[in-house]
Each structure stands twice: as C-alpha cells, then as structure tokens.
Amino acid sequence: MPLYEFRCAQCGPVERSFPMSDVPEHxxxxxxxxxxxxxxTGAVLHGSSPAKRLIESTERSAHEPEVVxxxxxxxxxxxxxxxxxxxxxxxxxxPE
Length: 96
Known about the structure:
It is built from 1 helix and 4 strands, in the order ββββα. The chain is 15% helix and 19% strand. It has a two-stranded antiparallel ribbon with strand order 1-2.
C-alpha cells in the first residue's frame, strides 16, 4: 500500500498507509485529534528498483565523478557486417 503524508497544524507531519482507492482527504492527528489534511509529496522509491539505482548513481556522479584510468579495448576491424537478405532492404540507400 502507498504511504501518504498528512500535516497537522500543531504536531507536524503524519504518515499513514492506505489503499489508493480509499485514501481520505483528512485524518485525525493521533496526538492531538485535530484534522490533518493530506499533502501532495514526491514519490518515494522503496527497495532496489532500477529507477532508484539510476537516481542514486546520478546523485553520486554529481559529487564523485568516475575517473577513467585507461582507454577501452579497441574493437576488432575484422568484424563482419550483418547482411539482410530481405528484398525490400535492397531498395534502401546504402551507407557510404
């Protein structure tokens, strides 16, 4: 279930989990019983998803860029080109 944030005027933020179809606009604060409206916040990525790993690596590279110590290995010039046998491809312009 998603985690929603509500804000009490006296006590501050309160987090609660609700199903997406049943999330209320207001809850009562567990500390002072005042009405706490729901806040619109950014999405939180839990676990180890590919999106979270990408965000973390991007944040790290802003402060700690990766240093390259050597050139990558050269590609072999003798690698054969893939040739299509489709007759429709013969009408396409050839690369120079």
